[in-house]
Specification:
The complex is a heterodimer of chains A (105) and B (447).
Chain A lengths: L3 E9 L11 E7 L10 H12 L9 E2 L2 E2 L3 E5 L2 E2 L15 E6 L5
Parallel strand pairs in A: 1-7
Antiparallel strand pairs in A: 1-2, 3-4, 5-6, 5-7
Chain B lengths: L15 E2 L6 E2 L1 H18 L8 E5 L4 H17 L4 E8 L6 H15 L3 E5 H5 L3 H8 L4 H20 L3 E3 L4 H13 L6 H5 L2 E8 L10 E8 L7 H10 L15 H16 L2 H16 L10 E4 L2 E4 L25 H16 L8 H6 L3 H10 L34 E2 L6 E2 L5 H12 L11
Helix pairs in contact in B: 2-9, 7-10, 7-11
Classes of the chains: A mainly beta (105), B alpha/beta (447).
Family (chain B): Belongs to the TtcA family. CTU1/NCS6/ATPBD3 subfamily.
EC number (chain B): 2.7.7.-
GO biological process, one term (chain B): protein urmylation
Chain lengths: 105, 447
């Protein structure tokens, strides 16, 4: 039985519409990726795209293998650029927020 | 990666990486820094007079929500004594604007600011839903953009307010600068990059919207024009501001969307680029002859010469509408795309730009060109690219302006709005709409 990590993932700033119009999702993802490496943000993004996102417009969330420019990622309320971006290794009960800056003002 | 500490307080965990200077700071320090910087933009540019009545163009979206919250906070903190009012435009788009107006109504209560809503239906006799039913989804942003600018001015006039602030941020301004560059429209740079502009506006008399039009000058300013969109969103996040973020259900505009995507891609590689584009736009605007000189008010603030640019009958890609693919640029969209096609044609005909043959033969590859550019600044004379003034060749070029556009202001003969044409854009659009409308009893607002 593979280990899993439980996380809270939030989508705001208009992104919630891509994820069943639901802002907060409690999810559990595998603790290791396919290569046996500890799951990181890159893996989470791929996982969200494949498993959580029902909307077919994947390009509104992910472009060229990373989060679309203009979407902010907060890891436990800190800018993901301060935490290692895609390489950040997920810890149990982490809170990951995706905020779009692309929607109207 | 070990947690990093805030560069300002050296105590809390860093939460924000500032795009403008890569500073790593904590949430509370970020909030006070952001507010201080907006206050600086306001005071160094003398945006407000003490006791001034100021309408905040409020859509319920992130930018205007942050603007309202910050101005309210700063007004209380610094005793600016401003009389702040929320001014919203109801375009009449069901499932979109009705929801965002609910957010504005909440803000009115939360911030203790009065709210005035003006609707297209009341002003023009047409809601956007009706316009779209009439003209279709394509091109409807033109109507919305033209109507919005007048609607904000008319709303301000109804409130007796001579200053409207909008939530344009640095990303918006950078986008507009790029768009102006890409379509060769440098005269517009001045208005796009001025933190304060003056809109001569028709102010309907208080008693009647139909007669007795008088004119007042409505100032427009953009207190957040040096603030990154990222920081505006983070400010809203850390202050837990509630804002509305759903797409306009009608068509977005592709050209602005492309400029926006370019800006966001640049930001990821080099975040300073956004403010650098803004600064470049400001500097270039100064080089455009006469673009600045037409302003009716010349304001000298702290020894720094500042002039207002006219802003008549234009929309600048802001309002309520926004889109992942791009915000509407409103009235200029169709015209701009037509211009673009003409430019492409002109380029194909080799009428606009000539590169001297020597530089053509010298530069074979991008790498060589880059080498030349970097090693030879200023460039040696043989590499100079000669750009001929635009020519009228009768092949669709007659609408191009060879010299900067000077706007001569008159007054719309129908509604009295200030206009460079005898009939303003809104009345022209309304005429087309009303002709096609089966019912004839509809009165055009302001006529």
């Amino acid at each position: 039985m593979a280990e899993s990590i439980s996380l809270v993932v939030e989508f705001t700033g208009g992104l919630e519409m891509l994820f069943s119009d639901q802002r907060k999702h409690r999810i559990a993802i595998p603790a290791k990726d396919a290569k046996g490496q500890p799951s990181n943000i890159a893996f989470l993004i791929q996982y969200l795209c494949e498993s959580l996102m029902k909307d077919p417009r994947k390009e509104m969330f992910v472009l060229d293998g990373s989060v679309r420019p203009g979407i902010l990622v907060l890891i436990n309320d800190a800018d993901w650029e301060l935490e290692g971006q895609e390489q950040y290794e997920l810890q149990p009960n982490d809170n990951i927020v995706f905020v779009s800056t692309l929607h109207g003002g | 990666m070990p947690p990093q500490t805030c560069e300002i307080c050296h105590a809390a965990r860093a939460q924000i990486l500032r795009p403008k200077n890569h500073a790593r700071i904590c949430g509370p320090c970020f909030i006070s820094t952001f507010e201080r910087e907006v206050a600086e933009a306001v005071t160094t540019n003398n945006l407000f007079q003490p006791g001034e009545r100021v309408a905040i163009g409020a859509s319920g979206g992130k930018d205007s929500t942050v603007l309202a919250s910050v101005l309210k906070t700063l007004n209380d903190r610094h005793g600016w004594n401003l009389d702040l009012i929320l001014l919203s435009v109801d375009e009449g788009i069901q499932g979109y604007r009705d929801h965002s107006l609910e957010a504005v109504k909440r803000h009115s209560v939360q911030y203790g600011l009065p709210l005035k809503i003006v609707s297209y239906a009341d002003l023009y006799g047409w809601s956007m839903d009706q316009v779209v039913a009439q003209v279709g989804k394509k091109g409807n942003c033109t109507y919305c953009g033209v109507f919005r600018r007048q609607a904000l001015d008319r709303g301000a006039a109804m409130l007796g307010v001579q200053h409207v602030v909008t939530g344009h941020n640095a990303d918006d301004v950078a986008e507009t600068v790029l768009m102006n560059l890409l379509r060769g429209d440098l005269p517009r740079l001045s208005r796009a990059t001025s933190i304060i502009t003056s809109t001569p506006s028709a102010a309907a008399n208080a008693s009647s919207g139909e007669t007795g039009v008088s004119f007042t000058s409505v100032k427009r300013s953009k207190p957040l024009m040096y603030a990154y969109e990222k920081e505006i969103v983070l400010y809203a996040h850390h202050r837990k501001l509630d804002y509305f973020s759903t797409e306009c259900i009608y068509s977005p505009e592709a050209f602005r969307g492309s400029a926006r995507t370019l800006i966001k891609n640049l930001e990821r590689i080099r975040p300073e680029s956004i403010l650098d584009v803004v600064q470049s736009g400001i500097d270039m605007a100064k080089l455009v002859p006469d673009a600045n000189a037409d302003g009716p008010v010349s304001c000298t603030g702290k020894g720094k010469k500042q002039s207002y640019a006219y802003a008549v009958e234009e929309d600048d890609g802001k309002g309520g509408c926004g889109s992942t693919n791009g915000r509407s640029s409103g009235g200029e969209m169709a015209e701009m795309e037509r211009k673009l096609r003409q430019d492409e044609q002109a380029e194909a005909n080799d009428t606009e730009v000539e590169i001297t043959s020597k530089s053509k033969t010298n530069v074979h590859t991008q790498a060589e060109a880059a080498k030349l550019n970097s090693s030879n600044r200023p460039q040696p004379i043989e590499n100079v690219v000669t750009i001929r003034p635009k020519q009228i060749n009768g092949k669709g070029m007659k609408n191009r302006q060879a010299t900067p556009l000077k706007q001569k202001l008159g007054q719309c003969e129908r509604c009295g709005y200030l206009s460079s044409q005898s009939v303003c854009k809104a009345c022209v659009l309304l005429e087309g709409l009303n002709k096609a409308r089966p019912r004839t009893e509809v009165e055009v607002g302001g006529e």
